[in-house]
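Think of the structure tokens as a kind of shorthand, similar to the way a musician reads notation: each symbol stands for something richer, in this case the local conformation of the backbone. In the example below we present two proteins back to back. Begin with the first one, reading the sequence and then the tokens, and try to describe in your own words what changes along the chain.
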Amino acid sequence: MSTVPYEIVDVFTDRPFAGNPLAVVFEAEHLAADQMQTLAREFNLAETVFVLPPTADGATYRARIFTTETELPFAGHPSVGAAVTSMRRGLFQAGRVVQECGAGLLPIEVTTAGRATLTGGEPRLGDPVTPGPLLDMLGLTASDFAGGDQAAARFAGCGLDWLFLPVRREALARIRLNAPEAERQGVTDISVFSWADGEAHARVFVPGTAVWEDPATGSAALGLGVWLVAAGWLPPDGTTSYRVHQGVEMKRPSQLDCTVTAKAGTTTSATVAGHVHAIAEGKISVPPFIG
């Protein structure tokens, strides 16, 4: 049986064995989608990314990203992890590269120190959502909600949308997610966060999946910038930096350094940056073609 090479890396952390673990698979151009899905289930991580030759003009490489259940158009820590790991393997030099993925062509700045800055896709903002049922689903109470009329629970994203719910800092450790209730409400992607002095502390949940809490979520960090501008918690014009701390409750502390650019109260772009640490490498058997 043939094999393909892979690496396991930790993303959005200043040290190994923290942040979000990721499988990066190379030489995957001959794999079918169901073979990629099978390998993602075998790694059993939040996401597995497959690095492929580009098909679009201007792209440096193509990335296909799979959870244990499905393919995603975009995700943050696979994009950052794939870019840094590919640079280290000599697929391209450090500097500006362009990743082709389901969300389009995304620019990424890669450094020789193993850090990458990803620019997200087109910002999107949803309508306000009633917070009460979400708090109940998380085992929290109305007094834990830290938003208001403008700072409402709502969806936002830059390539992948998340539902954002602001809470008090002390409430994060008390969250007890009710998965059946999340299914009843149709909640599949939610970021619960506190905010103070330009920094967020977040817990990000994907109810109903094999990996139901994420220790570092680049796409959610990008979407948070869109939410913060809409809520009036970050300036309506110019570029502002903010930081997201995540994974603390999972004992996999992560740090995501972000910027958001806005004009007249509307987000025009956002970036997320972090380091990537190599953990393991090897070869994995190619599963039989299923489809």
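Once you have a description of the first chain, move to the second and do the same.
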Amino acid sequence: MKVVRTSIEKIRRRDLVEAAYLTFLDHGMKGMTMARIGERAGMSHGIVNYYFKSKDELLSAVVRKANFLIMQDAVRRLKLARTPRERVSAVIAANFPKDLFTREIARAWVSYYAMIGEHAEFERLQNAVDSRLARNLGHALKQLAGEEDARSITLSIATLIDGLWLRHAKSNDQMDAMGAIRHIEAFVDERLKTATARS
């Protein structure tokens, strides 16, 4: 009986995280209420509170899921990369999934970023994501440029990724996922050309 109960609990928790993630995409952080999540999952408000003792705990699970999806795509793309430059491209592309780079999702992410200063757990999660991005980019870029240039280019890529997502939340932003990728790729090509010429 205990094994069955644990299995059901895992399924319910997974379903609630999925419902919370979809609610986050539709309504942003502030609109992600326990009532909406429960309704989407087909569960009562009480069941949501049973599995997640606070909204912060649930929000952390949602952020981890979102980052896991991006990480999965990055791993898949990195396996196909054959050169350091292709690895850089793989990491960049993974941060702009075509089906997720939408205005609604961009606005949801903006609401998440706005709350980082209020939630230590969110900041810890984001620091982990930023560190992983820096490691993936830095390893490849060090093979293409000097260590100092690699650090500088890595920081610039991370800033461009965040900035393009932020801009996409505006109603007049016309850049799509491929446009965002091309914009960053052009920057990387130019910086690598400069670094090569200097060395």
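Compare your description with these statements about the second chain. The chain has a mean pLDDT of 87.
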